[in-house]
Design brief:
30 strands; 34% helix; binds beta-D-glucopyranose
Amino acid sequence: MQQLEYKGTVIKECFFDRKNIKKFEAIFTQGNGYLGIRNALEEHYVGEIRDTFITGTFNKASKEEVTELPNIADASTVKIIVDEEEFSLTEGKICFYERSLDLTTGESVRSIKWESPKGIKLDLIFRRFVSLDNEHIFVQKVELLCDKDANIIIESGIDGSVTNSGAMHFEDIQRRVYEGRYMEYIAKTTQSNVKIIQGAVCSLNKEASAIPVMGRRTLANRYSIKIKANEKLEFEKKSIFFSERDKEFAHLKDENRLDEIKRESAKLIRELETQSYNELFKRSEAKWQDYFEKSKIDIGTDDIYVKTSINFALYHLRIMVKTDDNRVGIGAKALSGEGYKGHSFWDTELFILPYFTYTHPEIARTLLEYRYHNLYGARLKAKENGYEGAMYPWECAWVDDGEVTPLYMGADIVTGEITKVWTGLIEHHITADIVYAIDNYYRVTNDNDYMEKYGYEIIFEAALFWASRLEYIADKDRYEIRNVIGPDEYKEHVDNNAYTNYMAAYTMRLATKKFEYLKNNNKTLFDALDSKLDLKYIKECIEKRLPKLYLPLPNEDGIIPQSDTFLGLKKLDIIKYKNSDEVLGIYNDYNTNQLNEYMVSKQSDTVMLLYLFRDLFDYETRKKNFVFYEDKTLHDSSLSKSTHAILANEFDFEEMSYKLFRGAISVDLGANMKSSDEGIHSASIGGIWAVFVFGFGGTNIDDKGLNINPCLPVNWDFLEFPLVYQGTRLRVRVEKGNQVSVRRLDGKSAEIYIKGEKQLIK
Ligand code: BGC
């Protein structure tokens, strides 16, 4: 029987299986971009990962480790004891179990009928949500009915005895229960010195007084209540979360900040005490409605799995982003798990950002402002590596941390040693990916203000990095980019990775264009940037080197070499791995050095280039290369399938496209119960949206403007999606047969291209 059920706007866990709890914790994560709480159950189980994160609170657990997002004290635990028997699903008998997450309201509800080992029957309903109305709040409610008179103990509080898989990030500062019921817990990160201030208050629908309970790093309130048979007991808990890094307190002096936050939190907890779960939920639900109003995608299909997938994506896209804080990025696992340590990668710019650019441009801008603040670390990294300009860290954490990619991770199957991680050292394409995202954002939004304050500077500094990164190869009289990792991380230390070389060329070309544009149209800004960055020097460097940069062209068979060596590598039969559910399964048989010798790719690489630059090669060459590389790609990165699904659709490989699309939507939502243990895959979730809008919806932007050239799957009746183009909100509807109609919802008339024809949307 299937454990995970899809209901369109709701996902449901149909029964309890302790082996799979991590999957549900991750995909049922609740949050608002500031706060993220994995949906670990109220009672504890072996194997659970009980994580709570506040964005931006990075800390280094020890000198040897890189900074990571620390798991803060847990507020979700609620211990229930009935006549001395503790409620646990691994004891007694489960007569009924289901848990659902409403993707359009953010509420999860768990209903249980349970019989204790001694035969007491309990009906339980657990509800919870993280507020979208006030980002500091997490609210829970438990309803309990017992089939006989019983004594119930409920204990819940704040538990600081948590770690990031063993690494401890906090020192206790203060724990107290004041005025008999308000719990307060303050802890400080060990290295970054960020104080986290948490509070909680509980209430019951029956008279009961709280007894404070304190243990090592924990505090709780315990209630002991006598109830009659079938008398409903209701318990509510409101928890609040603040950190010294919160944006609203950033302007305060360091010495005043903690006191001010304590005052705010004490005020908030008192206010919350007077408000019910339902009242608070209604307010959060209204915010969710606003969000879905602007984001929703309608699909004319009976396939409920597909319908659920887009709501799942829209839900997670919302809870992964702190919409108004340009000091934080989006982690590769967002706020849903410890994987990738909360760090941001190119995942944001090329896979997640497009959704925001086209649907919520103001959020996209915040995320791109974060990259402006990263310039500090990027300049540092360039300098440390002997380059000029800005070299973006492969992994980013707090705004000015610089490079935070770990140096070692995971075991080498052959040597048994810990493996060296090269990505932070030689995966360089991110410095062009960010520029690509800015350029695209600008085309879609026309946001000159962003460009003037941040965008141009990033583009010029990135271009200077690339110019300085090129190596002159005298015997070939050309520049090359040697010793990199391209997007395909199964190939380390390669020369002239096509993706990297073309992206570098594009960045430098764009900088030259912007240079001319500013010189002719905005002299004041040109002069200001010139005196800050020395634009003329940057231009000179580019002009000297770019014309001689080697850009791999298709060979006599029409294939663009992924790198200098790729096409000469040994062939490998990869069917076994391609057909397997296990991601990275190839590492069970080969280590990284061995993989370097085979013609096998982890993820979209040259195909990614064809996706980003549709005009770089003719249709036939693109198609041929897609077929060639798809055949060798294992899609062992969750980023990969959505891109291939979009291109397969474009090249009329309908069946393949739909299969890849279903693969992409299944990364987290699918039946594989182990795929999301360390958290959901935020880039893959952005990729789901991209397949709908860029793939089947056929949306893209080029020098002409916005194009809509759809190609719906044959079994779909229609597809409807929103777009915001240069300030105008549009709703696009594609009917069977790919007929397009576009409604303007607000803003000025927009000029767009529908199937190549210019149209004015009045
Ligand atoms: C992929 C990268 C990606 C990273 C974080 C890796 O497995 O190869 O492309 O940026 O995961 O999602």
